[in-house]
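#struct-pred
JK: can someone run the complex with magnesium ion? inputs below
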Amino acid sequence: MDPLATDSPGDQTAMTDEAWQSVLRAVDQTYSELVAHQERLEDQNAELSAAKRLIESVMASVSDILIVIDRDGTVAEASASLRGLVGGEAGAVIGQPATGVFDTAGAELLAAALGRLRLHHAVTHFEASIPTETGAQPFDIALSPRIDARDRFAGAVLSGRPLGELRRAYAELELSHEQLKQAQSQIVRNEKLASLGRLLAGVAHELNNPISFVYASVHALEKYVGQFETYFQQVQSGAPREDLVRLRNDLKLERALGNLSTAIHGAREGAERVRDIVADLRRLSSEGSGERVAFDLAETARVGARWVERGSKTGVAVTFSGEEALRVCGVPGHVQQIVMNLVQNAIDAVDGVPDPAVRIDLDRAAGMARLTVSDNGPGIPEAQRAAVFDPFFTTKPVGKGTGLGLSISAKIADEHGGQLSLLPGPGAVFLLELPLAHEPGES
Ligand SMILES: Nc1ncnc2c1ncn2[C@@H]1O[C@H](COP(=O)(O)OP(=O)(O)O)[C@@H](O)[C@H]1O
Ligand SMILES: [Mg+2]
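RT: done, C-alpha cells with the ligand placed:
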C-alpha cells in the first residue's frame, strides 16, 4: 500500500480542519474589524451631521452676511441673509466666485483683499456694496483667513455688517447728542435769564429813585410856569404897579424863583443819575461781547456787587478790602457774572443770620489776582463741598436756584486761565484767581 494512500485521508482531514480554522479565524477578525470600522464611521458620521447642522443653523440665523470662501475664491457656504439679499435660489451663489456677489468696485476690493490675505494671513476691513433688487446696499466687510492644520491658507471667511443700520444708529446718536446740546444751552440760557432777572430788578430799583426825583421836579416846574404866566399876563396887560406887587406876593414868586433853580438842579441830578446807570449797563452789555481786554477787577467787582445788592431786598451791603485796583486780562462781562453769582450766593446764605456780612477782598500773588468772597452764613457742609461746583447742584427751593451759578462761574474762570475754588470757613469762602494783565512797560 502506498503509505501516502493509507495515511493521506486522515492527514488530509487534519490539515483541512486546521486550514479552515485559520480561515475562519481570519474571517472572524476581519469581520470584527469591519464592525469596529463601521461603528467608528457611524460615530464620525453622526459628528459630521451635528457639525453640518450647527453650521447650517449659524448660516441660517446670522443677520450679518457670512460667506465661507474656498482657497480658489469660490463660495463654499453662504448665510441665508446673503441669499435673501441676492434673491437667488438657495445655494445659487455656492460654487460661484465670491467677487460675483459684490458690485464692480466691491469685487475689485475683495479680489485685492484675498490676494493680500494669501500672503499675510491678516484680517482686512473694507466697505463694499452688494447689488440687490432694491438698489446697492453698503456693507462693512471683515475678511479673515482660514488656515489649515499645516498652517497653510485654506480660504477665507467674509462677514459683512449692513452699513445702512450703522449709519442709522449713528444718525440717531447724532440726533440725541444734538438734542442734549440744545437742552444744555437752554439750561445755560435759563441761568443767564435768571442773572438778567436779578440785574433788571437792581436796575428797576435803581432807576426808580432818580426818575421820581425828575418827575417831582418837573411837576414843581409846571406849577411855577403857571404862576409866572399869570404874572406876565398882568404885566403885559399894563396892570398898575401896586397890583403887580400884590400879585407877586400872592403868588409867592420870589420863593418860586428860588425853588425854580432847586427844581432844575434836582431834575438835572436825576437825569445825570439815569445817564450814569445807562452808561453802567451799556458797558456791561458791551463787555459781554466776549473780547479779551485788560480791565480793573476791583472796579468790575464793585459794579457787580452793587447791582446784586440793589436787586436783593435784604439790604445787606458788601464791604471791600485789599487792593483798590487790580488789572487782569479777560472778558469783563463774564468776570462780572462770576462776582455777581458769588455775591448773590453769599447774600442768599446770610439771609436771616444776625449781623449779616458779605466781604470781598482783593490781593495778588504769584502773577494772579485773587478775589475772595466770604460771608458769615452757615457755610457749606463737609459732605457738600465736592458737589457745589457740579451743574444742577442746589440746596435752594425750586424757582430760587438753578444750581448752575458755580458751575458756570468755574467754567468761566477756567476759560480765563484761572480758577474758582472753595476755601475753608468759617462761613463760605470762595476764591477767584485770574491772571494779572501785563501792563505796557512791564517785563
Ligand atoms: N456762600 C454760600 N454759602 C452757603 N452755601 C453756598 C454758598 N454758595 C453756594 N452754596 C451752595 O452751593 C449750591 C450751588 O450754588 P450755585 O451753583 O450758585 O447754584 P444756586 O445758587 O442756583 O443754588 C447752593 O445751592 C448752596 O447749597
Ligand atoms: Mg447761585
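RT: quick notes.
The mean pLDDT is 85.
Residues 59-165 form a domain with the Beta-Lactamase fold (CATH 3.30.450.20).
JK: thanks, will look after standup
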